[in-house]
């Protein structure tokens, strides 16, 4: 196909194809694109004719892409990113008058401890924008970025989509939280003897602290696992339970009263909090503005 032949191509078909590659379902693709299922089915029929390939084969409840679909997607995704970037560069962004909708992914610790200050800044500069927050973590972030459900995320991350970008926002260490009135810092023996609370998105009963303890031949006893930091202070109040949390989260929890924070009685590595975003929106003026505010109010320049 030459450039003149592209005039016959409906770009919307390629968007449908990309969405089907991510969702593997006509129903979910229709919901994502705010279209009816018959419209998606019709688009798929046109795509099959265009590429002379079935593209997707149903296996149970899912639609698995053919090798030809995988090949097309590998070429198409960066091309659509480039088109998106070219169009976005032509658009101006004025925070004071914008009605943009930003979709961001935040881990629970970030939402609890760092979002409030960021939100106050966004409201002051851009009172007309809408912020949609999705809960994420290192497991969910790649899929949310790849599908476009979020444009930027803040969390600890590992693997990311090939076209995603990432930078370190801050390097932090864990702090020990306790609500009891026993004077002095806890020794390692006391720390291991105490009951522990753990904030775990997936309901796990172990974390990186347990890996550090195992290295020195020690262990702790977790008696409580909760999915979020909000309310952790209330749960610890009046008990001998302790919790190990990121330093920026400890600062917010202790500021509310009833808790005190101290250094852990063991050596632990610092961990990185990342900002990751879609490469297609790297130069989008609105997204660049948002990322600059995230850097300002979620980052910690002194730790970088």
Detailed description of the structure:
The chain has a five-stranded mixed sheet with strand order 4-3-5-12-6. A five-stranded mixed sheet has the order 9-8-10-7-11. It contains twelve helices and twelve strands. The protein is an alpha/beta fold. Helix content is 41%, strand content 21%. The protein has three domains: 4-89, Arc Repressor Mutant, subunit A (Orthogonal Bundle); 101-170 and 272-303, D-Maltodextrin-Binding Protein, domain 2; 174-266, D-Maltodextrin-Binding Protein, domain 2, CATH 3.40.190. The radius of gyration is 24 Å and the shape is elongated.
Q: Report the CATH topology name of the largest domain.
A: D-Maltodextrin-Binding Protein, domain 2
Instruction: Give me the count of strands.
Output: 12
Architecture of the largest domain, CATH level 2? 3-Layer(aba) Sandwich
Secondary-structure element pattern, one letter each: HHHEEHEHHEHEEEHEHEHEHEEH
Shape, per Cα inertia axes? elongated
The CATH superfamily name of the largest domain is Periplasmic binding protein-like II
Q: What is the first-to-last residue Cα distance?
A: 49 Å
Q: Which CATH class of the largest domain applies here?
A: Alpha Beta
**Major β-sheet profile:** 5 strands, mixed
- Report Rg: 24 Å
- Share in β-strands: 15-25%
How many helix segments? 12
Helix and strand composition category: alpha/beta
Poorly predicted runs of 5 or more residues: none
- Tally of individual domains: 3
Global mean pLDDT: 88
Summarize the structure.
This protein is of the alpha/beta class and 304 residues long.
């Amino acid at each position: 196909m030459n450039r003149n032949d592209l005039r016959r191509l409906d770009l919307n078909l390629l968007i449908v194809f990309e969405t089907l590659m991510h969702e593997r379902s006509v129903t979910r693709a229709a919901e994502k694109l705010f279209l009816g299922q018959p419209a998606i089915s019709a688009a798929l029929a046109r795509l099959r004719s265009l590429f002379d390939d079935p593209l997707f084969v149903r296996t149970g409840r899912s639609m698995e892409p053919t090798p030809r679909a995988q090949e097309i997607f590998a070429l198409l995704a960066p091309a659509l990113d480039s088109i998106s970037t070219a169009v976005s560069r032509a658009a101006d962004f004025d925070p004071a008058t914008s009605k943009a909708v930003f979709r961001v992914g935040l881990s629970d610790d970030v939402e609890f401890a760092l979002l409030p200050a960021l939100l106050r800044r966004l409201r002051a500069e851009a009172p007309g924008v809408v912020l949609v927050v999705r809960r994420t973590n290192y497991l969910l972030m790649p899929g949310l970025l790849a599908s476009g459900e979020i444009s930027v995320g803040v969390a600890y991350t590992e693997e990311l989509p090939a076209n995603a970008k990432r930078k370190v926002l801050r390097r932090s260490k864990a702090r020990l939280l306790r609500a009891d009135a026993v004077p002095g810092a806890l020794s390692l023996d006391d720390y291991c003897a105490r009951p522990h609370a753990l904030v775990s998105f997936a309901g796990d009963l172990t974390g990186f602290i347990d890996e550090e303890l195992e290295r020195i031949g020690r262990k702790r006893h977790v008696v409580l696992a909760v999915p979020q930091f909000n309310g952790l202070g209330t749960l610890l109040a009046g008990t001998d339970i302790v919790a190990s949390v990121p330093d920026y989260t400890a600062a917010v929890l202790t500021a509310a009263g009833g808790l005190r924070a101290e250094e852990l009685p063991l050596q632990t590595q610092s961990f990185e909090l990342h900002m990751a975003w879609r490469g297609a929106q790297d130069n989008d003026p609105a997204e660049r503005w948002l990322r600059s505010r995230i850097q300002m109010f979620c980052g910690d320049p002194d730790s970088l």
